[in-house]
Amino acid sequence: MKTLSLADTLEDQRLAPLLPLVASVWDDGEPSDIEIAAVCLAVIQNSELDLSCKEALQRWLDPSQPPSADDLDALRARIAGR
């Protein structure tokens, strides 16, 4: 199975409600444990997300492999509706 790029995961409409929260985690450059926990709680509470969505969100929140500047630009553009 091919792993999607981070930017490719943005096309899944089920992730759309959580994208602003994901973007806010990276606003200061590095997510805190509290910020990551807040997103994880939102994911747990969203019954529409399947395993592939959860894995995509987990990749967006991995501080050991942060999203590239291009990925963050794609995230912000998706939120803005571009």
Q: Can you walk through the features of this model?
A:
- It is a single chain.
- By secondary structure, the chain is mainly alpha-helical.
- The protein has one domain (14-80).
- Helices cover 56% and strands 0% of the residues.
- It has five helices and no strands.
- The chain has helices at 6-9, 19-25, 33-45, 51-60, 69-80.
- It is globular and about 30 Å long.
- The model has no long low-confidence stretch (mean pLDDT 87).
Order of helices and strands: HHHHH
Structural class comes to: mainly alpha
Helix content: 55-70%
- How is the quaternary structure best described? single chain
Number of helices: 5
The count of domains is 1
> What's the β-strand tally?
0
Q: DSSP strand (E) fraction?
A: under 5%
Radius of gyration: 12 Å
Q: Report mean pLDDT, rounded to a whole number.
A: 87
What is the general shape?
globular
Unreliably modeled segments: none
* Largest sheet data: none
Topology:
Blueprint: H1 6-9, H2 19-25, H3 33-45, H4 51-60, H5 69-80
Keywords:
globular, mainly alpha, 0% strand, 82 residues, 5 helices
